[in-house]
Design brief:
single chain; Aldehyde Dehydrogenase, Chain A, domain 2; 7-stranded mixed beta sheet; 6-stranded mixed beta sheet; 14 helices; 21 strands
Length: about 475
Amino acid sequence: METKPNLIDGQWVTSTDSILNVNPSNLSEPIGEYSLATPEQVGEAVAAARRALPAWAATTTQVRSDLLLKTAIELLDRKVELGELVSREAGKTRADGIGEVVRAAQIFQFFSGEAVRYGGDNLPSVRPGIGIQTSREPVGVVSVITPWNFPIAIAAWKLGPALAFGNTVVFKPSEETPAIAWELIDILKRNGLPAGVVNLLIGKGAVVGQALTEGVDAITFTGSVRVGREIATRAVANMARVQLEMGGKNPLVILDDAQLNVAVECAVNGSFFSAGQRCTASSRLIVTDKIYDRFVDALLTRMQSLKVGPSLSDGIDIGPVINQRQLDTIQGYIEIGKNEGARLLAGGELVDAATPGFFMKPALMAGTNDMRINREEVFGPFASVIRASDYEEALALANDTQFGLSSGICTTSHKYATHFRMNVKSGLTMVNLATAGLDYHVPFGGRNGSSYGPREQGKMAVDFYTISKTAYVSYE
């Protein structure tokens, strides 16, 4: 099997070490072998990005816009092929894989417009004879570090604005999902990406992580809290701008007056679809007394209809989790919950499918908010249902977490929906919708332990990827 290389300064380069990418739905199916970057190659990539920065920053906005638009068009043209590749390496259903490629295309298309739309202001001075102009300039060389759960969508919402606003990039995707990242960079390169503007480095964080924080002007990272905090510490020491998205323990509140079918579908979608491997997943289902038993019974019935199996099989609702380590982690949390006194209401069993893979039935436990299963991110098809006496207690439980990414409420009360939206401590909130599921043209991010730094996506992305300059001009 040919080893796919990394891209440094416009050249495809290999190293002495590589990683075999395997389908988590079929462990006997290798997807490809990919060269693993070394810390020295990271340094070379940063230097290449630094050399390429002046020319790329000086290109017209139309050149940058055209590159992003061509990339979007090719992604749409190849959405089935590339979507199935996402499904094969990340374990998503076929519909989810294709949908993610379409979303990536939409993001590149959006930022192709932003490339020619962003700018500054002409403002009057408070002093006579003086004019003021504000403008935005590229922040510089950006380290882009992306996770495996949305391997092309998250890459798009970081690479898109970075390139649109004139920055150069050192890009490290997760080593769990190198194939779609390699294809994306190959598309950019064939559509006119200049040498050194984006450098692709497939590598393990433990090996190349520190090098990715050195010599750069900004770091954007999506991943775990532990790694995010380490990156933040290094970034501050190097005076680099930092943007972190680090997961959540998201509550879905279900009030007595909720429409039961709506609440159940919100819970199933938010908790279990995409195998629960979404940082916006509904991992805490907080249900008030009068509807609690009916909701749990209806949810258990709905869970019985969910089909788990190979990601590209027809009729599958949930594919595998990403790897054995993650499967073991989820199984471990089920045991932790039992030891703390939580009840396993359904699921959690491993599934024997037509092909060997990391399959498990979605698990639902009943517990209290102080248990570890409700304090720590599990990141799998796993949720806990928590009883609350009334809306006020439900809101308090929702806010009792170190995280603050997404939240949701199911209710027919405009009063409670409005109060929840205004008082829940999260960056995203949903009313009668699943906590997962986002648009690409609006800000994304959380608070507390979920996020740090400026928001991602939409028009607000310009705040991270550019530096504002204010110029005073004398008219005399």
